[in-house]
UniProtKB/TrEMBL annotation:
The keyword Transmembrane applies. InterPro entries: MFS_2, MFS_dom, MFS_trans_sf. One of its GO terms (biological process) is carbohydrate transport. The gene is yjmB. SUPFAM superfamilies: MFS general substrate transporter. Belongs to the sodium:galactoside symporter (TC 2.A.2) family. The chain crosses the membrane at residues 12-33, 45-65, 77-95, 101-126, 147-167, 173-194, 221-250, 262-282, 294-315, 377-395, 415-436. GO terms for molecular function: symporter activity. GO terms for cellular component: plasma membrane. Residues 1-441 form the Major facilitator superfamily (MFS) profile domain. Keywords: Membrane, Transmembrane, Transmembrane helix. This is Putative symporter YjmB. Pfam families: MFS_2 (PF13347).
Amino acid sequence: MALSLGQKAGWGLADMGVVVFVVVKQLLVFAYLTSVLGVPVDVAGFATTAVLIFDMITDPLVGYLSDRTKTRWGRRAPWMVAGAVVLVAGMVGLFSTPEGLVGVAALPWVLGFFMIATLGFTMVAIPYGAMAGEVTQDPKERSAMTAWRMGFASVGILVGGALIPGIAAGSGYSVAALTVSPLIVGAIWLSVFATRRAPRIDTPSSISPVRMLSLVVSNRAFVLLAVLYGVMTLAIALITAGLPFAAIYLVADTGDTPLSGAAAALTVLSLMFAAFTVGSILSQAGWVFASARLGKVGALFVGLMAYVALLYGLYAVLPSVNVTIVAGMFVLAGMTNGSYQQIPWAIYPDLMDVTRAQTGEAIEGAFSAIWLFGQKAANAVAPLVLGLILNANGWVETTQGRVEQTAQAIDALHWAVTLVPAGILAVSAILLIAVYQPVARRVLHGA
């Protein structure tokens, strides 16, 4: 049965709420620890990465339990509804550190609530990703669903990257988190409501966790794609983690460019994210078209190589005193990032179909857990990598938002958010064509 427009768009809506938290996690947690609480950059990097250990337990557990859930509302909806509440409770608590609790002493508070928020995110994101493999088996419908998802995700990026930093700067991080909490919960709950009559698999899986894992791992094409997507995400997460510092130390607008007024009103960081989001929204239909003409893998390769070229261009432009030029570059960055956002999410449900067809087991939650773990691992490791790079080059932490840095430290930030991600994406693109594509052709042909 073909999905209605409302069901496709409704499925995509949930990602607006999910992405707000993802951007907050990538963009603000590391900066909050180092620039507000005064935690040393290397310690902050290790601390945020430590949450990954918690994810290693909760991700497969939620995937397994989601596959085995049986309710009148289906296997996925109850997890998403409850997870949205857990997510926002942890996020608000994370940024509500008691006054006077600074430095390393603040880590237990922040990390405790960070784990709660991460658990809520897992409860939403894994069942949500599993739905992509349940509601349709039509690859074209999945591309259309993913385009809707990316459109709503772009709005989430705009809110998380453009609105929240401005609120945080003016009213505090906890107020910013409270402000966007209704949006997160509302988007996820409305998505559940909009897809309540979409096709779904109600029969819970009865196989053991070990058997589930073995079936997922035996799908070699899926495992390769999950690893490559994690590597791509590491590059994007490095950029995101470094953007709050880049906005402060690499963009010093002179005040006489066309967008200087916007930068003053929104903050440079918010303007950059707004420009990035515009580019991402404009690109979505283009990447659906490119996927149809070039194939999903071919379109993703083109997008990744365009991203590499764009990052080299940013390296040449920065540091800059012209916020208009930088904003224009970020529009282009958003357009190239659209391929990374959209296409892998349209590919991996096709690979889940192979295992279901071969074994008869509907274990989309297990696939979703492995898929998201690679993304989470990259997001957790990126602040650690950035922190180690900056610390090795003499970066100075502060509780005042900005402090004078050495030329060596600024230079390290410059190449860490441009050339390093460009190199990672270039390697990912090569492996996508040379390693993943031949395996995927064999697996899908055998299906």
